């Protein structure tokens, strides 16, 4: 998948926004899983607001570097 995204960024005019969307979605999904596990251990439901409140731009940059 890394190679496909790298080629998309280089060849497609909209490749960079596509890469950013992919990285953001992947990070949100992993954070959602973590929030669900943490909320389940406390006995409540996780919300999207909880997940978005803990997401920081530096984490997206770190995940982008790891993806490439």
Task: Give a summary of the structure in a few sentences.
By secondary structure, this protein is mainly alpha-helical. It has four helices and no strands.
Itemize the secondary structure elements and their pairings.
Elements: H1 2-11, H2 15-42, H3 48-54, H4 57-67
What order do the helices and strands follow? Answer: HHHH
In terms of quaternary structure, what is this?
A: single chain
Strand proportion:
under 5%
What is the terminal separation in angstroms?
A: 10 Å
Rounded Rg: 15 Å
As a percent range, the share of helical residues equals over 70%
What does the main sheet amount to? none
Number of helices: 4
Low-confidence stretches: none
Average pLDDT, rounded to a whole number, is 80
Strand tally is 0
